[in-house]
Design a protein that fits this description.
single chain, 227 residues, mainly alpha, Endonuclease Iii, domain 2, Endonuclease III, domain 1, 2 domains, 13 helices
């Protein structure tokens, strides 16, 4: 019997050898090209519950009209931020989260997210999760870019992990994140995160998975049970 961690590694190894990223866009990666942690965090907030096309449009609008820096954000009227990020949807709550994040960073981290590096992983994670509007995935994306051993889990990764039989049907965020953390090397986390999302978008779709052409069908529990 193949151990779950070995199977997870097999999944990643196969996805590395498939041209699965072509045409895919990831908001946090596009925002993170300059390596600015605050930009990565804001991009991740904007990407919640929408597609990357919309969140990238909202990000560029906010960048152009306000500027993506903590001090510029807190000095800007809420309604202007709301208007700037409308393409991302849920703009009222996202605008408030963006302001909350900027204010917290200024008040508690001297305006610089890199100060989280001085803390341990769990402490840094707790600080981020204590900010209103920041959930596990958003926190873990930032922590991963800070080189902490975080593995962010989105809806695609959750669905893929369960269908493949890597975790139980009732597995929660922490269960799935820990599986991938234990199965892969730290320097593989970001690449695996991106490839699993791309696989979920392209093949393991929520409503109509393309099982007949899936490159993982021979090791998939969902295919085995559903034909």
């Amino acid at each position: 019997m193949v151990e779950t961690e070995d199977l997870a590694r097999e999944v990643y190894n196969r996805l590395k050898n498939i041209d699965i990223l072509q045409g895919m866009r990831f908001t946090s990666l596009e925002a993170g090209k300059k390596g600015d942690l605050f930009e990565i965090l804001i991009a991740t907030i904007l990407s919640q519950n929408t597609n990357d096309k919309n969140s990238i449009e909202a990000y560029k609008s906010l960048e152009r009209r306000v500027g993506i820096e903590p001090y510029k954000i807190v000095e800007t009227d809420l309604n202007l931020i709301i208007d700037a990020i409308k393409p991302a949807g849920l703009y009222n709550s996202k605008a408030r989260t963006i302001i909350n994040v900027a204010r917290y960073i200024i008040q508690h981290l001297d305006g610089d997210l890199s100060n989280l590096k001085k803390l341990g992983f769990e402490e840094a994670r707790k600080i981020l999760l204590d900010i209103d509007g920041i959930g596990y995935k958003t926190a873990d994306i930032l922590l991963l870019h800070l080189n902490f051993p975080a593995f962010p889990v989105d809806t695609h990764i959750k669905r893929v992990s369960k269908r493949l039989g890597l975790v139980d049907a009732d597995a929660d965020y922490e269960d799935i994140s820990m599986l991938w953390r234990k199965s892969l090397k730290h320097d593989e986390y970001l690449d695996a995160h991106i490839r699993l999302i791309a696989f979920g978008r392209k093949y393991c779709k929520a409503r109509k998975p393309l099982c007949n052409i899936c490159p993982l069908r021979d090791i998939c529990k969902y295919v085995e049970e559903n034909g």
